């Protein structure tokens, strides 16, 4: 049977482990929530952008516009749309041709098949592959420079959502930078580590005091 001193230290150790496990679960949950929020946000934006295309497709079907004119008008609208601080939309074809990009107008009409991010990912090939999946849409993460910061060293992780426009052969997408997720996570991790260290010191000190009192009580008992 374990003696009282060992039992005390086991209880204190279990307390520390419990706090550490709780902190880890909390951090994991925080990261999941942040990713979920961003996925929901950009999917919602693309779904709204699709309403522009649906409207112009309706004009084609009712013979109010030719397909070429409807696509031109829809492209102009998508090029001008913005949301939040940095949100915008792009469109590429299933042949990887860039059709709409408000910040890279010089590349419109050109093939982006060989465009790679700093990790070697063929970004537009991935857009097309994702859009041609059975779901016709999906999320992906790659590295991209913020508009105006084209140096490869400035590339940051970006979460994007793309969706196929079946009748037009388009892929509509938008994205959001996710480097802030890791910043929030790291800040909370540091807070958790600081808390754990404080608890470690407090528990160690408390355990020392309890052990000292217990030893003194044993000494008094022995004298009696």
Structure description:
- By secondary structure, this protein is α+β, with helices and mostly antiparallel strands.
- The chain has 2 domains: 65 residues; 139 residues, PAS domain (Beta-Lactamase).
- Helix content is 56%, strand content 15%.
- It contains 4 helices and 5 strands; from the N terminus they run ααββαβββα.
- The protein has a 5-stranded antiparallel beta sheet with strand order 2-1-5-4-3.
- Strand 4 and strand 5 form a beta hairpin.
- Helix 1 packs antiparallel against helix 2 and helix 1 packs antiparallel against helix 4.
Summary, kept brief:
The model has no long low-confidence stretch (mean pLDDT 82). The protein has four helices and five strands, in the order ααββαβββα.
């Amino acid at each position: 049977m374990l003696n009282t001193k060992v039992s005390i230290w086991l209880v204190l150790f279990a307390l520390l482990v419990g706090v550490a496990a709780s902190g880890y679960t909390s951090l994991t949950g925080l990261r999941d929530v942040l990713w979920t929020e961003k996925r929901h946000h950009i999917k919602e934006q693309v779904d709204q952008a699709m309403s522009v295309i649906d409207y112009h497709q309706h004009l084609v079907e009712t013979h109010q516009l030719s397909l070429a004119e409807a696509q031109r008008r829809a492209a102009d609208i998508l090029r001008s749309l913005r949301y939040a601080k940095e949100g915008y939309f792009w469109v590429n074809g299933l042949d990887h041709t860039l059709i709409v990009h408000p910040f890279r107008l010089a590349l419109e009409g050109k093939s982006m098949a060989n465009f790679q991010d700093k990790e070697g990912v063929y970004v537009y090939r991935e857009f097309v592959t994702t859009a041609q999946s059975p779901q016709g849409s999906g999320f992906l993460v790659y590295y991209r420079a913020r508009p105006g910061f084209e140096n490869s060293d400035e590339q940051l992780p970006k979460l994007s959502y793309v969706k196929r426009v079946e009748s037009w052969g388009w892929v509509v997408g938008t994205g959001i930078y996710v480097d802030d997720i890791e910043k929030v996570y790291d800040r909370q991790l540091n807070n958790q580590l600081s808390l754990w260290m404080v608890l470690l010191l407090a528990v160690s000190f408390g355990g020392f005091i309890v052990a000292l009192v217990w030893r003194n009580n044993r000494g008094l008992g022995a004298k009696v």
